[in-house]
UniProtKB/TrEMBL annotation:
This is HPP family protein. Signal peptide: none annotated. The chain crosses the membrane at residues 29-49, 55-73, 104-122, 149-170. The keyword Magnesium does not apply.
Amino acid sequence: MPIQKIKRGYRKTRYILYKETLVDYKEHFWSFIGSFVGIGVLAYIQSIQFSGHDAVYLIGSFGASSVLVYGIIQSPFSQPRNLVGGHLVSAFIGVTVQKLAPDIIWIAAPLAVSLAIIFMQITKTLHPPGGATALIAIIGSEKIKALGYMYVLSPVLVGVLILLITALIFNNMTSSRTYPSHGLYRKQYHKIRKRLRSKS
């Protein structure tokens, strides 16, 4: 009897490993195209508006958001509410903490990230890269700090909307990928999409 259980467990493990390691080339292709275009548009805007090495539009948290929004589109953290809300809440918290404690980095940095997490939880907009958005407001260059609350609108809001629009386009190019994939957003977005398709 124990040998049968071991064999059954072994078969289940092999099956799970097999399913988890399957390479879906279509999935990889659309993840690549979406993230390439999303970050590419941000980089292009950056190259037009700013010169030098100071990347204002290319904040690091957008790279992490791209992994979620283009690579793991079914995750609750990848949904539009979390993407937009998480970054905006975190950016606002980060700028506020930076203004209250501008020279005390050992208090400002952990306070900004911790408060961002709490406020994302309260508003149900938890998006892990949001913590980096709050941190960038504290440790960013002088150009980013000089933006003040404009940091929330540009680069954060502008960048997030570019990532979201790109995700809505490229994550819905095939029938196997649907984005958003949770809640009311999914129902409303896909209803509108069907209406537009039927009219054309």
